[in-house]
Structure formats: structure tokens, C-alpha cells
Amino acid sequence: MIPEHDWRNAPLQTFRLWQETDATGATRRPFSVRSIVQHVAMFERFVRHLARS
Questions:
Q1: Mean pLDDT of the chain
Q2: pTM for the whole thing?
């Protein structure tokens, strides 16, 4: 599990680490590298959206 403070201090890096180490898809298998890249890109846009709000 990733400590909560990492999410506040470095959300993009922590999200990527979570995707690479703990996150699983509907079949309970780890995500592919391509999926991780896509998920991180979407999360990065979301973080930018929150920063503008």
C-alpha cells in the first residue's frame, strides 16, 4: 500500500507506482504497459483540471 502523504506530495508519480505495482483490471491481472501509459495520461489531465479549479 502506498502511504497517503505520497498522494498529496507527488500524485502523478504515486499514481504511476500504484498502477505498476498494485492496480489490477477486471480480470484481476496487472495492467499492460500500454494501459498504464494511458491511465497515467488521463490522471495527469485530471490533476491539471483540479489545479485550475
A1: 91
A2: 0.82
